[in-house]
Amino acid sequence: MEPLDINDVVNEGIALVMSELKSQHVGLRAELAPALPAILGDRVQLQQVIINLVMNGIEVMQVIEDRPRELVIRSSKDDASYVQLAVSDGGIGMAEDDMDRVLDPFFTTKSSGLGMGLSICRSIVETHGGRLSIVRKPEPGVTFQFTLPLRKVTS
């Protein structure tokens, strides 16, 4: 665990999936808040969470043909002591029943999925003292959001 700028972690994760975004014709918009406070985290594990959320978003948008395929990644700081990161896709959305269970181990909505990706993401985020959740959105698609506590500076 080391002090990290979540925006740097996001940009590194994006670089790792750029070829997949291009090959699947998915646009990516990063709306990263400037000068966010540092978090304490494991860079590789947090990149894994971001990459998994982006890859899931790419996969669910494969069936979209009537509008642009776009992912949006937003970083921000909440009113408390947390940094937030949200990954929104423009896919077909998710059934209400699935939203309650999609973070559970071995639950999947994919025909070829194992149901471990989001569960592992949740475990990583929780190990970092944060929380992974699904945010309902009015337009098509799903937003996965996670919060991470700010790095505590000791004097």
UniProtKB/TrEMBL annotation:
Transmembrane segments: none annotated. Keywords: Kinase, Transferase, Two-component regulatory system. InterPro entries: HATPase_C_sf, HATPase_dom, His_kinase_dom, Sensor_HK_Regulatory, Sig_transdc_His_kin-like_C. It is an enzyme of class 2 (transferase). It catalyses: ATP + protein L-histidine = ADP + protein N-phospho-L-histidine. Its EC number is 2.7.13.3. Residues 1-152 form the Histidine kinase domain. This is histidine kinase. It comes from Bradyrhizobium iriomotense. The lineage of its organism: Bacteria, Pseudomonadati, Pseudomonadota, Alphaproteobacteria, Hyphomicrobiales.
